[in-house]
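Changelog entry: the tRNA-specific 2-thiouridylase MnmA record was regenerated in this release. Current contents:
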Amino acid sequence: MSKHGRILVAMSGGVDSSVAAVMLHEQGYEVIGLTMKTWDYASSGSSSKETGCCSLDSINDARSLAVGYGFPHYILDIRSEFGDFVIDNFVDEYLAGRTPNPCVLCNTHIKWEALLKRADKLDCEFIATGHYANIRLQDNGRHVISKGRDENKDQSYVLWGVSQKNLARTQFPLGSFTKAEIRQMALDMGQTELAKKGESYEICFVPDNDYRSFLRHRVDGLEEKVAGGNFALSDGTIVGRHQGYPFYTIGQRKGLGIAFGHPMFVTEILPESNTVVLGTQEELKKTVALVRGVNLIKYESIQEPMEAITKIRYKDAGANSTIVQEDGLMKVEFHHAVSGIAPGQSAVFYEGNDLLGGGFLL
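Regenerated structure tokens:
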């Protein structure tokens, strides 16, 4: 009988989740490794070599590590659920003129649910992942996510959608470590190749990071359907023609194919008229944002105006703001104007290092 009970560890084959699994194994947990097959690269239309968490090499690396340490390893095929929910949403969001956040949706609706369902079948009390974040139970009975110690690797931003029910059974073993320390642990384990493994910042089902090509491959006749729309200024003046509104994102400056003699940015996307609005950097700035689909982590509700740091992108440093729930939405008033508020992306709220919650920008 193990010292701490049985725990199911999500293993991608990368250094982070591998070290997390070994760490828990050495702490006395009865570890069971699980690698989720979320995507088949052959169906993406990509010419890139199959790499990352869904590749055969990564699955084999995870299994080899588990065998070496003497704990079981399973592969769970969730391609159907992943495709039906995450990829369909990804395509639908771009066709609606928004910029999707697939990693948040995957964590919230696919990975955690799949992990816990399998954990129940295997009699595992807890699940664990290799995310750089921390979790604790506070006095009000809520499970709170806080930033990982390594500021450059902190992944709390993509975890705002995980429910309290699921957080109650979740552990993040890497939260108090830096990436450099984790790589050194892998070296100390004798896992030299694992320690050297690179990182991918791409969307797993867009391996060459070319979402436009993915959309063309996924949606029959897309280019013909959306070609020939107008570039326009905020006053309605037409200044050129574009390739189709789904191929542009808020804040985009490069690749517009139109010259003004000064920097111009995509400030708005209007799918109903196939119009892409361009403006100056000042026109890109806003002081107010509305957020839908809010999931709160630290508190049950925020009915009174509250000071918070709001991040509107994963690598965003965050901005001082006042937030309050109104009519089912979260209203964010930034203390200074921020650039690039993109509908569909996540807005995530922090109190110090603690994750208050988040939602999707309108």
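The CA atoms of residues 232 and 239 lie 5 Å apart.
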